[in-house]
């Protein structure tokens, strides 16, 4: 298990979390240990996403960086967007979806890192997106005051709903039966069947991040030190607790046997992990904390799960390839038989803030170039066989 977080100071932090069984009558001990820092971006980090193998980060420098967490190497960079990368979401291990200030939503093959589809999704910025657990639908919100539903099977817009304000968060529930849309300090809860609002939760301060702990319990963090847990059915606040000394910037959760774990990151520089028992209405208890001494902006938890074939998008859902002009984007190179190619493809990242940002020539290459190199390599092998 690894905590990964980005900050205004352009650095990605990684902390390995070690779990030790407690003695008789003692609870399990969780200890975060510094694993790496990497200064790969040229501007502050704005988004982070994780799957079983990779961590990807988006930045105001308009690039998406890829990190192979099992090999602990930097895998390359994707440069298709113009403007800040506002949101990144993995669906299983096969696909990554990104949204940015340019109004584009891009669907990436998370194995070859090809751009499968580039959609002009919003007239303004794409501020948030979320993929339905089935992989057939996606939701996005933007600064054009619209909520858009996307049919991922056909790769097109399915429904557009006008909303009165600019929403900055959209999120599906774990079951996919409901979804939420956040505008400033208000959370509207929608039912999938009716696409209508079934309830609204309002807080005193602007909401910065939300996460579903279960299908009915929602954790809400904002421009304050307090985190609140709400019941999505009754709309009541189940409990609240002071998580940090400054505003909470990001929050996420995952489940372990017997309880849930909530992870929070704050502008005070701390990342904290909390134990929550959903069967009790008591506030979560602190598991562990670590001080990064940086102004944190985004957070993710890499759990190192075994690859599950069920986490792939449905076969029919693979978006149609973009045209030739759209395919000429920059991405990380594929594996090569020569050692020089391997050195260009991946770059170790460790405890340093002085790592230079990878140049385009070092770890990005166009799709056409890869295909041409493959054809030339085959011709060379044929010539050698004929000579022999």
UniProtKB/TrEMBL annotation:
Keywords: Nucleus, Repeat, Ribosome biogenesis, Signal transduction inhibitor, WD repeat. Residues 314-365 are annotated as: Disordered. Coiled coil: none annotated. One of its GO terms (cellular component) is nucleolus. WD repeats lie at residues 38-70, 78-118, 119-160. GO terms for biological process: cell population proliferation; negative regulation of signal transduction; regulation of signal transduction by p53 class mediator; ribosomal large subunit biogenesis; roof of mouth development. It comes from the Eukaryota. It is found in: Nucleus, Nucleolus. It holds the Pfam family WD40. SUPFAM superfamilies: WD40 repeat-like. Gene3D superfamilies: YVTN repeat-like/Quinoprotein amine dehydrogenase. Residues 323-340, 351-360 have a biased composition (Basic and acidic residues). Negatively regulates the PAK1 kinase. PAK1 is a member of the PAK kinase family, which has been shown to play a positive role in the regulation of signaling pathways involving MAPK8 and RELA. PAK1 exists as an inactive homodimer, which is activated by binding of small GTPases such as CDC42 to an N-terminal regulatory domain. PAK1IP1 also binds to the N-terminus of PAK1, and inhibits the specific activation of PAK1 by CDC42. May be involved in ribosomal large subunit assembly. Interacts with PAK1. This is p21-activated protein kinase-interacting protein 1.
């Amino acid at each position: 298990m690894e905590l990964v977080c980005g900050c205004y100071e352009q650095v990605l932090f990684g902390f390995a979390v070690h779990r030790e069984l407690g003695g008789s009558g003692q609870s399990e001990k969780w200890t975060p240990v510094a694993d790496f820092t990497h200064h790969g971006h040229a501007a502050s980090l704005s988004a982070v996403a994780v799957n079983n193998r990779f961590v990807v980060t988006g930045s105001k420098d308009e690039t998406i960086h890829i990190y192979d967490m099992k090999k602990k190497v930097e895998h390359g960079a994707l440069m298709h967007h113009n403007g800040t990368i506002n949101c990144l979401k993995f669906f299983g291990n096969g696909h990554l979806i990104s949204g940015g200030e340019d109004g584009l939503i891009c669907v990436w093959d998370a194995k070859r890192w090809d751009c499968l589809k580039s959609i002009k999704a919003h007239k303004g910025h794409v501020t948030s997106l979320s993929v339905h657990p089935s992989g057939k639908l996606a939701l996005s919100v933007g600064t054009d005051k619209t909520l858009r539903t996307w049919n991922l099977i056909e790769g097109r817009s399915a429904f557009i709903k006008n909303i009165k304000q600019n929403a900055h968060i959209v999120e599906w529930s774990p079951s996919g039966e409901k979804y939420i849309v956040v505008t400033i300090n208000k959370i509207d809860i929608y039912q999938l069947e009716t696409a209508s609002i079934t309830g609204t939760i309002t807080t005193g301060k602007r909401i910065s991040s939300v996460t579903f702990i279960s299908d009915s319990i929602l954790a809400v963090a904002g421009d304050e030190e307090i985190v609140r847990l709400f019941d999505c059915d009754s709309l009541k606040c189940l409990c609240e607790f002071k998580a940090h000394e400054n505003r909470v910037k990001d929050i996420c959760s995952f489940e372990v046997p017997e309880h849930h774990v909530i992870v929070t990151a704050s502008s005070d520089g701390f990342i904290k992990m909390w134990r929550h028992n959903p069967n009790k209405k008591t506030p979560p208890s602190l598991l562990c904390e670590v001080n990064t001494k940086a102004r944190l902006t985004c957070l993710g938890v890499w759990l190192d799960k075994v690859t599950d074939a069920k986490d792939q998008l449905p076969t029919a859902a693979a978006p149609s390839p973009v045209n030739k002009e759209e395919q000429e984007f920059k991405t990380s190179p594929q594996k090569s038989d020569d050692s020089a190619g391997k050195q260009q493809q991946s770059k170790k990242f460790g405890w340093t803030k002085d790592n230079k940002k990878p140049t385009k020539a070092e770890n990005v290459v166009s799709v056409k170039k890869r295909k041409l190199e493959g054809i030339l390599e085959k011709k060379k092998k044929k010539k050698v066989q004929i000579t022999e």
